[in-house]
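Worked Example 4.2. Consider the chain below.
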Amino acid sequence: MSLPEPEREAEAAAAIGFDLSECVQEPIHRLGMIQSHGTLLAAEADTGTVDTAALNTLFLLGIAAEELVGGPITRVLSPEHWAEALQVCAQHDAASLVLPVSVDVAGSPRMFDVTAHRHGPLVVLEYESRAVAAPHFPHFYRGVRRALTRLRSSTAVVECCQAAAREIRALTGFDRVVAYRFDGENGPGEVVAEDVAEGREPWLGLWFPASDIPPQARRLYRDNWIRVIADVDDTSVGLHPPLRADSGLPLDLSNSVLRTVSGFHLEYLRNIGVKSSMSVSVLREGELWGLIACHGHAAVTIPPEMRAACEFFGVAFSLQLGVIEEREQAEALTASRERLDRIIFRVTSDLEDSLLAGDGALRELLHADGVVLCRGGRSTTSGMSVPPALLEALQARAAGPAPGTVWSTDRLSEESGDLVDLVGDGPAGALMVTLSRSGDYLAWFRKARATTRQWAADPSRPVQVGPRGERLTPRGSGAVFRAVVHGQCLPWTPTDRATAQELWRTLTGLVLRHEAELAALNEQLRIINSDLDSFAHVAAHDLKEPLRGISNAATFVIEDAAAELDATTVRRMHTVRRLAGRMDDLLDSLLHFARLGRGGLHRTEVPLDRVLDSALDVAGERLAEAHVRVVRHDLPEVYADESRLYEVLVNLLVNAAKYAADQGDRTVEVLVDTLHPPSGGPPQQTVVVRDNGIGIPPGQQHEVFDLFRRLHGQGERGGGTGVGLAIVRRIVERHGGELWLDSEPARGTTFFFTLGQEGG
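Applying the procedure from the previous section yields the following structure tokens:
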């Protein structure tokens, strides 16, 4: 089977094979060549000395490149024009202007359009011959103005792109103009609109592989609105010198209008029968959104006026496209506002339960299959299951960016770094909004959705073998390749991202309001606690004096008149004295408990071994009397107030002595482990005090930390006021930690407590 004519010509011109990876690595801005219909000079801005010249200056300007280099630029440019070029180009490296210039060539004046731009210390001047009858900018401006008027009537993105393709083709006369939209920053592209001459095959709806436009080419498209190729078969012109002395590299032609293009791209154009081309960049928020690509089947030189008009159109088109997308986004956001309001209405201070209620409204807000809220290292999910490793990786990614930052991908499997190996059978795409710099986030997930795309050629085989070796695959609808895309979810839209950010803003307002209300309540609580502490302190002191009087009076009566009293009265006087002593002990405990609420903690890194030794100086005798053996493990340093931690250990050790088993090997262990606290969150350093005593019945375990609560009678198990464990709980809470227990009757009790985080 014979190849079509364009493909056959391309194969005939090919002599050797090549590696497509060279396309990605090729320094296309430093090819050291320009298109031959013009010439180029680069002069030092400070001195006006020519630094580099194209090798065709003799033909176009009448002076050889070797003669121009090192001499003054004013040999081919008037001092007035040079001054004007310096003034405009001084504003910014990318700033440029076009000057109509007359150059005396062999005794005859020749008109040129000179495009000037600044690049570092150099001013780059590009000379293009001006045709006598060339139309001026006002002619093109009127065409652009009419085109923009039609463009403004478009109400949808695709409609706007179709209008742009139609108007650019009418303005320039190219045979084919397509609007080409990229799928992500480095993804493939789709033809979303087209205007083509009669008899040409349609490309509308076709996808082109990402390798067609490598990253360095996309960067140049982003930085330059216009790129023109006058003739794909042009013999490019080199520069003198080919390498610059200061860098050892060819002159950087990133912003040059005459810059030649990659040989790979020229071959690509030949393969589809294109003789000339022009590309107009389409930018969205400073990033490359797509291209308006123009193809001609004959060589054509685009004058500067037309380039300027098309550049103006490209800027206006990009702005209009942004307006349409923002309007569509606003309309979609308005449509989702009712769903958003219903979610916000039910949000309470318990964010996890109220936001991720069981009705799935939060998932449906972004048409997602799952959602997760991660706060304080604790993740709450709804909908599809997500691998824990992926949640941790997202938490690491969320740490750092400013709250409210939205990140999304519709192909998690293609993500680099910490996500690519964690997807498995889980979600295919995710959209995440950060809630705090510490790694809190809210994320939605979508399952994979298989979609069919029509490719201009097999995207997995951009290079094929022809009669003369490996060549770039011809593109065109005649070679349509249909493929099903797997491992990718429905793309997240700008509306999805805007909705997520709007939810973040509203939640931030609610959280701030809740925090303000909580701060007010905390202030009231502080005042109440202060009053209670003061009351307890005063009451304890004021009550102790009459109690001492009552106890002393009862003692005097017993000592002085016991012989004259009957046995019942004496017994009652002993009861009065005992109760007064009991009340005095309770007031001492109350006073100590109240003092725990006043004054700050003095936290440092303290050896737990040393604190345990101090506690055993007090509790050791009680443990010895109860025949309880202390078992200590390797104890590290902990961040705590040493005096308060000492009280905790004393109370827990005394508690182990009081409630020791009636027989057997009685022990109490002290150790440190890394455990999850019952409130959730990440594992924390936890102090463990475990005895094998009588244990606590399940129905009474919640009571043991209450003030003045004893589970045995006053005279049983060593007595006491029932305030010890309440003091333990208060000290632990003052440290920002948690206290809990695990107990089983006849098998013992284990107390666990954390001490909060360092610096907390």
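Confidence is low (pLDDT under 50) at residues 1-24, 465-478, 712-719. The first strand starts at residue 33 and ends at 34. Compare this with Example 4.1 before moving on.
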